[in-house]
Amino acid sequence: MLGEYRIEGRRASDIAASVERGVAAGALEPGQLLPPMRELAQSLGVNPNTVAAAYRTLRERGVIATDGRRGSRVRPKPATTARGSIRVDAPAGVRDASKGNPDPALLPALGPALAQAALRDAERPGMYGEAPVDEEFARLARAALDADGVPGGPMAVTSGSLDAIERILAVHLRPGDAVAVEDPGWGSLLDLVPALGLRLVPVAVDDEGPLPDALARALRAGVRAVVVTARAQNPTGAAVSAPRAAELRPLLAAHRDVLLIEDDHGHGFVDLPLHPLAGTTDRWALVRSVAKAYGPDLRVAALTGDPETVDRVLGRQRLGPGWVSRLLQRAVAHLWVTGAVNTAEVARAYARRRDGLVAALGRRGIEAHGRTGMNVWVPVADETGAVARLIGAGWAVAPGARFRIDAGPAVRLTVSGLAVDEIEDLADAIASAAGPAPARTYG
């Protein structure tokens, strides 16, 4: 069962350490079946409870996974190379449509907001022991959430969406728990989940969000958490529609013990209404980052949720960074109050490029997706070949492998730097590079 590797130890901690050494050295490979607890206890001359305690420690550390009568196996190792490294750097003279950044011309000037925050700090400097959430920031964020029909709940502030999601998962889940994620979905999230010792369960999506049948299967399979992107889904541009939300809510309500996390990073640059799923389960959270609408370097996201979830996040945050800079919170509040971003205008600017490209590809017989946001997802027959051919045509795009688990091959293009008069030429290049229509697309 274990080949030549021998698990050793008389105490639970020593047995667990022995298994970890084997995994680290490569002597115990991912997926390898470990001996049944009683069998290992007999060979080591210890009580079966000792081996049970060792296996429990290994599960909690994310080293092994136990599947009932099928036994315990070494878990796949967390990726040491992030999906973000699956990319093609744009050579000199090649246009880069791969990065996922917003258009700088559509971002507000931060100087006045930061200056105003600094003036307030000069009047009353921020110190230790103060509330982690600025009062005005919380009031404005909560008012916007109320207007969108998000259930009432306390507020927290995190350093962006991924920071919020990591903290929420960490305070509720244990290594080995399963998390339902969109497929294709955000590459950083697909890295984060296994890095926390959790299991990815892919849920197919279409232009209106997660497919109900796919989510139902994941819930029946026992996932402990579900992560849904409300609008501007990365990489497909999907947005949860009112009919789709109506289908998803009863599925979630039938599993009230499941943790629901909604990522609404599209707030501020997407003008489609929010159709929240929040409140359909007992434990839920909704997070709004300002990165895409106001600037990626503003590491601020508003978080609300059920009282227990928010309290746990704040408690764990106190033991780490303590709080997100109240200077930045006040700067964001100033941007909100002054209407520094006209959401409708920004949304129209992205839509002209995104919808124009999707339509141009459609005229060439190429399937493409991009309902909201700044990205277009194009299924292709040969992902590697398509990326290479597009570079040859002067365009760098993101390989779909960064964003998918079971979904078919594709490429993602960010339209932020695209001029309207470039759309037809880019569509010609994509049509030439994409090859025959793939048999399987996303969703």
SSE topology sketch:
Blueprint: H1 12-25, H2 37-44, H3 48-60, E1 64-66, E2 72-74, E3 95-96, H4 111-123, H5 135-147, E4 155-158, H6 161-172, E5 178-183, H7 187-195, E6 199-206, E7 209-210, H8 212-220, E8 225-229, H9 242-253, E9 259-263, E10 283-289, H10 291-294, E11 301-305, H11 307-318, H12 326-337, H13 343-363, E12 375-379, H14 383-392, E13 395-396, E14 398-399, E15 410-414, H15 423-434
Parallel strand pairs: 3-13, 5-6, 5-8, 8-9, 9-10
Antiparallel strand pairs: 1-2, 4-11, 6-7, 10-11, 12-15, 14-15
Helix pairs in contact: 1-3, 2-3, 4-12, 5-12, 6-11, 8-9, 13-15, 14-15
Q: Structural class, from secondary structure content?
A: alpha/beta
Largest sheet: 8 strands, mixed
Separation, N- and C-terminal Cα atoms: 39 Å
Fraction of residues in β-strands: 5-15%
Return the string of H and E elements. HHHEEEHHEHEHEEHEHEEHEHHHEHEEEH
Overall pLDDT metric: 92
Helix content: 25-40%
How many helical stretches?
15
**Sequence stretches where pLDDT stays below 50 over 5 or more residues:** none
Cα Rg: 24 Å
Report the strand count. 15
- How are the strands of the largest sheet arranged? 4-11-10-9-8-5-6-7
Q: Could you walk me through the main structural features you see in this protein, from its secondary elements to its overall organization?
A:
The protein is α/β, with parallel strands linked by helices and 443 residues long. Helix content is 39%, strand content 14%. The chain has helices at residues 12-25, 37-44, 48-60, 111-123, 135-147, 161-172, 187-195, 212-220, 242-253, 291-294, 307-318, 326-337, 343-363, 383-392, 423-434; strands at 64-66, 72-74, 95-96, 155-158, 178-183, 199-206, 209-210, 225-229, 259-263, 283-289, 301-305, 375-379, 395-396, 398-399, 410-414. The strands form four sheets. An eight-stranded mixed β-sheet has the order 4-11-10-9-8-5-6-7, with helices on both faces. A three-stranded antiparallel β-sheet has the order 12-15-14, covered by helices on one side. The protein has a two-stranded antiparallel sheet with strand order 1-2. Helix 1 (12-25) crosses helix 3 (48-60), helix 5 (135-147) packs across helix 12 and helix 14 crosses helix 15 (423-434). The chain starts with 11 loop residues before the first helix and ends in a 9-residue tail after the last helix.
